[in-house]
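stage 2 :: seqdesign
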């Protein structure tokens, strides 16, 4: 039996001729003002979409595409047959600027009436998709997805909390003093960097300069940070020293390590564990957490009660269904093993899919135990999973609808017959998912960062605080400019040269000195006011580290620099694609430069 939807609409449309005929919107009829209730059969064919047999529309094929003025492929673009005379319609006559203005206004009104956010307003939403490099989704033939923290989001307190517990149990069995310690996710945020040589956790700006630091669980003062790192930059290529927290999976490890640094400093770690320093301690914590994952107890617990660890997202499977029905080939490429992947995907997807679909129906290819990032870097043997129990056999070529273990990205490209920028890969790990797929294969990339939603809310909440802080800084800048001019006038006067300004020239020595003194006192008092406010900036997101994407008041964090460098688009969750369409053309926003403000002011 066909499903039905009852829709009540109260709309007043402005009187104008539209390019789109009223029949395309059967709810609206031909009247300009109306109230109506209609029942729509979901299985009906829209009169607005002509079939390919009619020759009204055509889709640009992979062999006939061009490159548009933004450098994007036109493959997948929809074309209209102008021989049918549609370009002679009255609504299309006249200067294109006028036609476009009228149609854009009409389209915006219609989108508002239907409750659909337009792409511009979607940018100003915690669930927007943000673009760093222009991306035409129509030209994408395949979309690959990571699973953990991408297609399913774990409750961080539950998942990472249990990972922490297992890690601490293993450390206890190794002889480390862990009694009295508890998981505290507020200690760390994604994008921080562990300094394994000094036992510190640091936050760097986009250039690598360290802005905040914590030794063990104690935040260091600005002076301590300057004395310790004034001449050093974070260089992620030096993996023996710096460890970047790429993903939420890093939270439990970082919390455990920083707490154990305190125990090492207190002399609480027994001498029979060997002469431990901060780097050796990091290896011990990493080993304990690795055992928690490898031994299987953690994943077994999660598989037995997934509802305690996974936050459901009913919109996510529908977003993927839209993409699949639009002709995109969907891939699941995960490092998780087959049994865990199947159990968790069943729990997260099957109940939200229509028409008795199961999660496997969405994907043209599923690859488990992929061993990323090596999956993107080199070739490994591929095995086909042939039974529900996970029995595998070697294979040399993947096929549509198959379930595989291992292999490589190049095998995927060869099997699908598509390469490079025809594939979009979506994941939560900046290095394993986003960086390596782009660097080695030139795949287009999307980063999932759930914390963006919390940061967006924190930024809104912080607007008043930041506005007052910026006002004080601007006031200090103006006062400081006058202070510097008078100081220069005094300097020139002592050297027997004329002052730079007429006003300063007319002041006697006493007036000049007194004015400088007063201005200096004002600036010092402003500093006393600004310093704690600057320290508190971003505390609505995290009291220790401030905002995820910012380092200080003006600059971007090292994390944000990595996102801009490697992720073409980024968003908080995969289901945000549902608010767009599989045909979306994402435009990168204009990047501001230091001299832009001066150009515009002129």
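stage 2 :: out
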């Amino acid at each position: 039996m066909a499903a039905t939807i009852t829709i009540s609409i109260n709309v007043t449309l402005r009187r104008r001729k539209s390019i789109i005929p009223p029949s395309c919107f059967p709810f609206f009829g031909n009247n300009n003002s109306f109230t109506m209730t209609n029942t729509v059969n979901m299985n009906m064919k829209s009169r607005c979409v002509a079939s390919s047999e009619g020759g009204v529309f055509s889709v640009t094929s992979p062999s006939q595409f061009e490159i548009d003025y933004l450098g994007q492929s036109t493959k997948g673009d929809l074309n209209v047959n102008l021989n049918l005379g549609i370009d002679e319609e009255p609504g299309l006559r006249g200067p294109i600027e006028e036609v476009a203005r009228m149609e854009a206004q009409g389209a915006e009104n219609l989108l508002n009436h239907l409750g659909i956010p337009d792409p511009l307003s979607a940018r100003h939403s915690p669930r927007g998709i943000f673009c760093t490099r222009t991306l035409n989704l129509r030209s994408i033939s395949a979309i690959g997805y990571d699973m953990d923290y991408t297609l399913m989001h774990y409750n961080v307190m539950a998942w990472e909390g249990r990972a922490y517990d297992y890690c601490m149990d293993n450390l206890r069995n190794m002889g480390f003093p862990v009694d009295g310690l508890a998981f505290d996710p507020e200690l760390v945020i994604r994008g921080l960097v562990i300094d394994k040589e000094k036992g510190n956790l640091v936050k760097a700006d986009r250039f690598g300069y360290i802005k905040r630091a914590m030794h063990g669980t104690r935040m260091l003062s600005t002076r301590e940070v300057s004395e310790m790192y004034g001449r050093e930059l974070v260089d992620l290529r030096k993996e023996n020293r710096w460890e970047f927290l790429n993903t939420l999976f890093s939270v439990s490890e970082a919390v455990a390590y920083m707490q154990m640094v305190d125990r090492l400093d207190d002399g609480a770690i027994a001498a029979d564990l060997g002469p431990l320093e901060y780097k050796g301690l990091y290896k011990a914590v990493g080993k304990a957490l690795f055992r928690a994952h490898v031994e299987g107890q953690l994943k077994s617990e999660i598989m037995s009660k997934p509802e305690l660890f996974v936050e459901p997202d009913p919109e996510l499977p529908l977003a993927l269904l839209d993409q699949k029905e639009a002709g995109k080939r969907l891939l699941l490429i995960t490092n998780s093993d087959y049994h865990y992947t199947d159990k968790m995907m069943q729990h997260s997807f099957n109940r939200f899919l229509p028409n008795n679909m199961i999660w496997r129906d969405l994907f043209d290819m599923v690859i488990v135990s992929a061993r990323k990032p090596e999956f993107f870097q080199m070739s490994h043997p591929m095995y086909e999973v042939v039974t529900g129990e996970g029995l595998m056999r070697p294979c040399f070529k993947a096929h549509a609808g198959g379930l595989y273990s291992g292999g490589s990205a190049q095998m995927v490209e060869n099997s699908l017959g598509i390469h490079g920028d025809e594939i979009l890969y979506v994941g939560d790990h900046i290095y394993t998912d986003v960086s390596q797929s782009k660097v080695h294969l030139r795949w287009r990339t999307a980063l999932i960062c759930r914390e963006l939603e919390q940061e967006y809310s924190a930024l809104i909440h912080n607007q008043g605080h930041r506005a007052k802080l910026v006002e004080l800084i601007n006031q200090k800048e103006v006062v400081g400019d006058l202070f510097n001019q008078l100081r220069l006038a005094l300097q020139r006067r002592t050297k027997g040269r004329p002052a730079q300004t007429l006003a300063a020239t007319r002041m006697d020595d006493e007036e000049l000195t007194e004015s400088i003194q007063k201005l200096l006192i004002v600036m010092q008092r402003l500093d006393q006011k600004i310093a704690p406010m600057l320290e508190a900036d971003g505390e609505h997101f995290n009291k220790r580290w401030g905002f995820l994407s910012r380092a200080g008041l003006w600059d971007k964090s090292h994390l944000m620099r990595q996102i801009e460098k490697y992720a073409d688009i980024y968003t908080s969750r995969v289901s945000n694609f549902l608010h767009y369409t599989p045909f979306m053309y994402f435009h990168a926003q204009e990047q501001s430069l230091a001299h832009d403000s001066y150009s515009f002011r002129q």
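stage 3 :: structure notes
- Residues 1-19, 22-53 have pLDDT under 50 and may be disordered.
- The CA atoms of residues 314 and 352 lie 6 Å apart.
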